[in-house]
Amino acid sequence: MADILKIFLIVVGLLSVYVSYWLLAEALFPGMVERASRCYSQPLRISLIGLGAALLPVILGLMLANLPHPFLKLAGVTLMVVPAMAGLAGSAGLTLRIGAGLPSPIDAAQPWRRVLRGGILLALAFLLPVVGWIVLPLWALVSGLGAFILCVKPHAQNCAPSAPAEFSPASQTSA
């Protein structure tokens, strides 16, 4: 009985961590999550972009993690964790898309609830044997990485013009 309870609590804890990261992404970067949600209208495209972006860091990370030096092991694990974290942030767009399909009157006042609803449903889908344990979480991370890459790039371009507009050469010469 203790082994069953241990496994159950590990699974519930892991699924809670997924939902927590999705809500964290929504709380810190709501615009990015909204753009990532729009990226999920082309799931094959973002999956291929995410797969291409994840292959090199994961392969290099695995190679470095198997070396005996502890700093190289740390560098290898870091190379694998960074794309996974970006994938979690991007897959918050998927949870937003799922949650938006289940509208509630509270959504206008509390838009984060869409991510919560979608995150709970996606996390529960992870309970499906084989497909939910392996295929769906990997696809969510890979497509999330692709969505993250696509939605961060336009944001950087939108922020770039505002900085030079505030700075003028006339203000520099008078100072």
Distinctive features:
175 residues, mainly alpha, 8 helices, 83% helix, globular, disordered C terminus
Give the structural class.
Answer: mainly alpha
Q: What is the rounded Rg?
A: 20 Å
User: Any low-confidence stretches, pLDDT <50, length ≥5?
Assistant: 156-175
Strand content is under 5%
The whole-number mean of residue pLDDT values reads 87
- Count of beta strands: 0
Largest sheet: none
- SSE order, one letter for each helix or strand: HHHHHHHH
Number of DSSP helical runs: 8
Question: Helical percent range?
Answer: over 70%
Give a short synopsis of this structure.
This protein is an all-alpha fold.
Describe this structure in words.
The protein is an all-alpha fold. The protein has helices at 2-28, 30-39, 43-65, 70-100, 112-125, 131-159, 162-166, 169-174. It contains 8 helices and no strands. The chain is globular. Helix 1 (2-28) packs across helix 4, helix 1 runs antiparallel to helix 5 (112-125) and helix 4 (70-100) crosses helix 6. The model is unreliable at 156-175 (pLDDT under 50).
SSE topology sketch:
Layout: H1 2-28, H2 30-39, H3 43-65, H4 70-100, H5 112-125, H6 131-159, H7 162-166, H8 169-174
